[in-house]
Structure formats: C-alpha cells, structure tokens
Automatic annotation (TrEMBL):
Keywords: Membrane, Oxidoreductase, Transmembrane, Transmembrane helix. The gene is fabG_12. Belongs to the short-chain dehydrogenases/reductases (SDR) family. This is 3-oxoacyl-[acyl-carrier-protein] reductase FabG. The chain crosses the membrane at residues 214-231.
Length: 241
C-alpha cells in the first residue's frame, strides 16, 4: 500500500484498520514531509502487526524526482494529503497562504497522483482512495479557498474514476465532514457532526471493500450537503456559512 500524507491521523487509522481486518501488504510505503513522526508510526505497525514499511520523504513544495519511485508497486493508494491553511480574512488576502492551500491540496498533488495512477493502469488492478472534503461541494465564505482546491480534487478523482474504470482500477472519493484531528484542533466543531479518525477509518475501509465510488464519513453530511448544494444562489449568497 502507498500512503500519501502518512502523518494524517485518518491515514494512520486506516492503515491500522486494514491490518486489523487481516489485509496483507508486502510493504507499506509511507510518504511524508515529516520523517521523524512517520518513522514512529512505522515502528508502531512493525511491533503491533509485524508489518514491513518504508518511510519516504516527499515535500510537494519542492521539485520531485519521480525516478526514485520506479521500484514501488502497490495495489492500494491512500491519499490523505491536505492543508487547511488560515481561513480568516487576513489569511484570505495572504497570497502565500492561498498558494500553499492550492498547491498542497491540488496543483502539486495531482502530478504525484497521476504518476501512481499510471502504474495502476499499467497493471490493470488496484484501488485509489482520495480524501477530499465536503468543503468542495459548494463554495462557502468561511473556507472557499480551501473548498475550491478540494472541489478541484473531487473533480479530478471523478474524472480519474471514469478514465480508469475500463482499466479495472477503482477510485474512491472520501468526503469527511468535521474531523477531530490536529488540523482542526481549537476549532469550535459540533460534536454531532464530527468524526474521530477511527470512525473515519472504519467508514473508509467499509467503502473500500464495497467498491463504492463516493463515501461521506458521517451519513448526515450527505444529507446536509445535498440541501446546501440545492439552495438557490440568490438565497445562498446571503447566508453566513
């Protein structure tokens, strides 16, 4: 299995869930921009599950030498790369903040996804799991820069799913709502709308095994976002969301 964004609590919870369910991986490739943190997780799954892994440094903000990844083969790719950024008004007009949100969530990520997608296509098997966001379902004033990047990522995964279907490769789009993670620490999240990484991992693993195309981590988000998507624009633009 390939894990992009392996410091993510959801990614790590998914790896553990898969191993607990008896999934067998010759090796798990843990791509990360924080090698020290990821190495601790690698030691953890080695001790707990006797699972061999390899930690690989990957910084999306730097030039990537794809030749270094030629030897990697996998049947599952789990992408949990994400960057929320600063959502305040000051953050909105901070171009460095804006560029980082767009680069990490979309523009610098897609070439990496395409590189591995091509490997899956050549082998004509496997599953690609991408964590997008409900923020991409409709632009809202509270986080529309982040939401626009996630909307682009959702569209990419939809097109990739369509393209790879005839090549026997499955693509699953996951849309978490509020998540109790380090990225959202300190934010006033409604507990009824917030999932833990373990809850998310269980939902994602179930969707993975059922070969679903799109999965919301908590079912209530599917209903909420359907309502939000269908509010007429002349009303929606006046709302504080």
């Amino acid at each position: 299995m390939i894990v992009l964004g392996s410091t993510s609590e959801v990614a790590q919870a998914f790896v553990e869930k898969a191993l607990q369910e008896g999934e067998k991986f010759e090796k798990i490739y843990l791509f990360t921009s924080n090698k020290e943190t990821t190495e601790r997780f690698a030691r953890h799954i080695d001790v707990k599950f006797l699972q061999q892994s390899e930690v690989i440094e990957l910084d999306l903000m730097k030039e990537i030498d794809y030749n270094k990844f030629d030897y990697i083969n996998s049947n599952v790719l789990f992408c949990a790369v994400g960057y929320l950024g600063e959502g305040t008004e000051e953050g909105l007009y901070d171009n460095k903040n804006t560029e980082r949100i767009i680069n990490i969530n979309y523009s610098k990520l897609i070439p990496v996804m395409n590189y591995f997608a091509h490997k899956f296509e050549s082998r004509r098997s496997g599953t690609i799991i991408g964590l997008s966001s409900v923020a991409g379902d409709r632009g809202r004033q509270s986080n529309f820069i982040y939401g626009s990047a996630k909307a682009a990522f959702t569209a990419y995964l939809s097109g990739l799913r369509n393209y790879l279907f005839s090549k026997k490769v499955h693509v699953l789009t996951v849309k978490p709502g509020f998540m109790a993670t380090k990225m959202t620490e300190g934010l006033p999240l409604n507990p009824k709308l917030t999932a833990t990484p373990k809850q998310a991992a269980a939902c994602i693993y179930k969707a993975f095994k059922k070969q679903k195309d799109v999965a919301y981590v908590l079912p209530i988000w599917s209903i909420m976002m359907m309502i939000i998507r269908n509010i007429p624009e002349f009303i929606f633009k006046k709302l504080k969301l």
